[in-house]
Amino acid sequence: MTTATEVHRTAHIPIQALGWSLGIFFAITFTICVLFDLAFPSQEMSRLWMQLLPWVNGISLGSYLLGVAETLLYGWFVALIFGPLFNFLAKQN
Known about the structure:
Blueprint: H1 4-10, H2 15-39, H3 46-52, H4 61-92
């Protein structure tokens, strides 16, 4: 049987691990989208990128590297908001 103290210890999200995992996940997803655009140019997704990723326009090495950097930052943004919020609320229960 688990005690309340054991439950609180397990309900903690390490912010650094969350930030890197989300950032890398978003960067991999962005890379897959770029590869999809290169393989199927008629089904391009770059218009969506221009709305979600500032200064990313079209498919070029510079835009790709900027998109990877921005998706990493988006992952950290989510982690820095969600992680502490989850950890705080997990302690309340």
